[in-house]
Amino acid sequence: MKLFVLLSRIPYPLEKGDKLRAFNQIKQLSKHNEIVLCALNTNKKLDKQQAFKALQPYCVSINFFDLSKIGIGLNVFKAGLKGLPLQIGYFYNRKTAKKIQELINRHQPDLLYGQLLRVAQYIRYNELPKVIDYQDVFSEGMKRRMKTDPWWKKPFFWMEYKRLQKHEVAVFDDFDIKTIISKPDRDLIAHPNSDQILIIANGVDYDFFRPKEHEKIYDLVFTGNMGYPPNSNAVSFLVKDILPLVWKKRPETRILIAGASPNASVRCTASEKATVSGWIKDIRDAYAQSRVFIAPMRIGTGLQNKLLEAMSMRLPAITTSLANSALKAKEDVEILVGDDAETLAKHILMLLDNSEKADKLAQAGYEFVHKNYDWSATTAQLEKSMQQVVNDSFKK
Questions:
Q1: How far is C-alpha 181 from the geometric centre of its chain's CA atoms?
Q2: What is the pLDDT of residues 67-79, one digit of tens each?
Q3: Is 209 part of any domain?
Q4: Using CB atoms within 10 A of its CB, is residue 203 exposed (0-12), middle (13-18) or buried (19+)?
Q5: 220-246: per-residue pLDDT in tens?
Q6: Where does residue 356 rank: exposed (0-12), middle (13-18), buried (19+ CB within 10 A)?
Q7: Cα 373 to Cα 248: distance, rounded to the nearest angstrom
Q8: Out of 103, 220, 301, 371, which could bridge 255 as a Cys pair, Cβ 3.0 to 4.6 Å?
Q9: Which domain holds residue 298?
Q10: Computed from CA positions of residues 152, 300, 307, 296, in that sequence, does the dihedral angle turn out positive or negative?
């Protein structure tokens, strides 16, 4: 098949979940298919040449379209007037849409694959077989942010939540295949036929994220894009609520907060005991230097790739029921779960003080992710569905 892949971001470097998913799916799909890649770009600082080099082995054509700040502002305003979600306006540009259609006409793909609701407007009315990867439920993400963000932001989040929820349903019937990361996310799509959405989980690159011997400098580690609100919220919860309880009994406990683009709320948590590293060229070093991984997620949706990576590197992991609802690891066997500061602090202290329990949990978690999260297997499921839709279109 010739697949036209449309993304809202250039999928390199792999510091964000949507980039990681897109890159690995492209890598797997390219084994048996031709990939025409089209990616939008709003980051002027991005090294596009480096990204092109990383993607070139997997694509027969690579196309990047820059979206200007002026254009974004104007299109967000237009989306607001039309009652569309503002982030749909943020990523939609009429001139770019015309260029994308010209690319489709030139390459004559068998199928269009759009990642995230953000790009649905570009391809939803095209007559070719189409796939939309919801990936996460954006509307629910907005709803959850209303619980933690300042009161003056809540009217905006409520408006965007309702608009996104409506749009998630509106585009549903325009696509032949709908995919999403997890069942809990699928259940949040308000369409009456949401059970038709295919669950295509993420995976782990086991050759890359494997156990690595290293001196343990930190007791705890939390990783992720630190400009992403669910991650910065987790950092605040961790440093302000959880760790003070740990430090009362274990004052020497040190934590590494590692990841790109730490915002002001993350940077201000830095101290002698809490290191905020910013971007790390090889994130494996952050895992290898630490004894326990913790992801105290309170908002956000989807599967946490950081948990898969840490567990694949055989770190004992702690998280919340929100994050584990998508992961589905066995509590107290493959992962430890807690939703309040006291429970999470108790889990941390237990693992730091009981190496035998920590090793047993780490091994069980390692075996769990290797058994259930494999890029090759999950993408094969997606590819099979794509091939079926293409075959059906030829019969018509």
A1: 9
A2: 999 999 999 999 9
A3: no
A4: buried
A5: 999 999 999 999 999 999 999 999 999
A6: exposed
A7: 37
A8: 220
A9: 218-372
A10: positive
